[in-house]
Amino acid sequence: MKQLDNAYTVSQINRYIGHMFSEDFALSNITVKGEISNLKYHTSGHIYFTLKDTASQISGVMFAGSRAGLQFKLEDGMSVLCTGTIGVYERGGSYQIYAKSFKADGVGDLYVKFEELKKELQEMGMFDPMYKKPIPKYACKIGVVTAKTGAAVRDIIQIAKRRNPYIDITLYPALVQGDGAVESIIRGIKTLDMMGLDVIIVGRGGGSIEDLWAFNEKAVAQAIFDADTPVISAVGHETDTTIADFVADLRAPTPSAGAELAVFDFAKLQDDMSAYKATLDSVMLEHINDARQRVAMYKLKVNQHSPKFILNDYQKKEIIYSGKIKRLLQDKLSEYKTRYQSYEELSHIMKDKIREVKQQLKDYERFSDMMHQSLERARHKLMLHTEKLETVSPLRKLASGYGYVQAEDGHRLQSVSDVKAGSIVRTSLVDGSFTSEVISIKQGDVGKSTRK
Q1: How many CB atoms are closer than 10 A to CB 126?
Q2: Percent of the chain with pLDDT over 70
Q3: Among 122-136, 364-378, 391-405, 432-446, which is the least confidently predicted range?
Q4: Which of 125, 211, 287, 375 is the 20 to 30 Å CA partner of 360?
Q5: Which whole number is the average pLDDT over 130-159?
Q6: Residue 8: partners with Cβ closer than 8 Å, 6 or more residues away
Q7: Which residue intervals of the chain bear CATH 3.40.50.2300?
Q8: Contact, 49 vs 37, CB < 8 A?
Q9: Helices in 392-430 by DSSP H: which ranges?
Q10: 8 Å CB contact between 206 and 177
Q11: Nearest to 152 by CA among 206, 207, 210
């Protein structure tokens, strides 16, 4: 160790003491029995804690690289066997145990009492959600039960006023740890509960399990449960859990968060109200315009049925119709004049046609006489030709005793050579016909022919 002007630097002293600790075999791998307190799981992965007994305590840390061997979750009040190295934290000038592993060594007395009370109250139903009262959305008056000094009350007031400058805060300064804390907290809850407030925040800042123990007492839990005013429990840090958290109507991880949950954001409310007003104005304007349109329509309908409107309408129609009728009459008069002129021309044409038809009728009469004369001459000629035909008519010959002979196939027989013996012939007379069979044939001797 180098001396500088007979003085040593702080770093030199701490480094020298650290070297002494590292050279001590007994401190390089040691197991310490104690109760966990001030436990904190850091976001870096390190675990910070305090080991204590009834008379003393030592700080400790377990680095993230050593957590792989940890088989259970550490809790405040837990009794453990911690194995590690005692070393010096040179920057802070303190010594601590650098933990390598933990073994459970039973549970501390406070932790046992905590679990027993938690189980008892749970069986009584004090944690049941059915008893939880809703926190008002727009609380205007809040009460706070906490120490009159410290970070907790400052954070609550600062955040509450920031969110709503018009919030009414009533503080009941209470003892939050040590002798008389339980009675003080209970008096604060009961006093504020009778003031007709919107919500009560009960809490304090962080600390060890011993520091927070007043909020683990059954009497405090009963006072919170019996309060008619909704209660928010805001005790310790986010990792701290107390009986008050389970009984309260709402648990806040920190006092600051309790103020956030209890007090509405006035600026946001104003923005929301402005947005609602703009929406309402738009809707109302739309309804007003619709109403105006309906009024205008109804007014038009009323005017249309008023006598004055009807009379004016009739007058307008009369003017329009009189003009139309006048034009129509003029058009009809022009049309009739044109037609009259056409009728006169047609009359002359018809008269000419009538004269022409009369002349044609006279010609038809002469033609009729000529037709009668022609018919008489034709009738006379017909009679002469008829007489001539009758003279040569076969019927006349048949009537004189002659007959008409046909072969069986219907052709006329003119000679005996056209038939044979055994042929069938048909003979037609003036009053009928008969069929005969040819027995024999003789040429030139008509009188000797035999017929059947």
Answers
A1: 17
A2: 89
A3: 391-405
A4: 375
A5: 93
A6: 1
A7: 134-264
A8: yes
A9: 394-399
A10: no
A11: 206
> Topology of domain 134-264, per CATH?
Rossmann fold (3.40.50)
| CA distance linking residue 323 with residue 312, whole number of Å | 17
Tokens of 61: 């840390």
Nearest to 203 by CA among 227, 239, 231, 183: 231
3-state secondary structure (DSSP) of residue 219: helix
Place of tokens 């039960």: 145
CA 153 to CA 264: how far, in whole Å?
18
Over residues 12-38, the pLDDT tens digits come to 888 888 888 887 877 888 999 998 999
DSSP H helical ranges for 305-435: 307-391, 394-399
CA distances from 337 to 7, 125, 329, 340, 341 (A): 147, 115, 12, 5, 6
Query: Which tokens sit at 411?
Result: 């052709």
Q: Which residue has the tokens 């008056």?
A: 141
The b/e string for 25-58 (b: 16+ C-beta within 10 A; e otherwise) is: eebeeeebebbbbbbbeeeeeebebbbbeeeeeb
Separation between Cα atoms, residue 132 and residue 135, nearest integer Å: 9
Q: What CATH superfamily classification does 10-107 receive?
A: Nucleic acid-binding proteins (2.40.50.140)
The residues of the chain that CATH labels 2.40.50.140 are 10-107
The C-alpha atoms of residue 173 and residue 144 are separated, in whole angstroms, by 8
The strand pair at 47-52 and 57-62 is best described as: antiparallel
CB of 167 closer than 8 Å to CB of 195 = no
60 strand-pairing partners: 49, 97
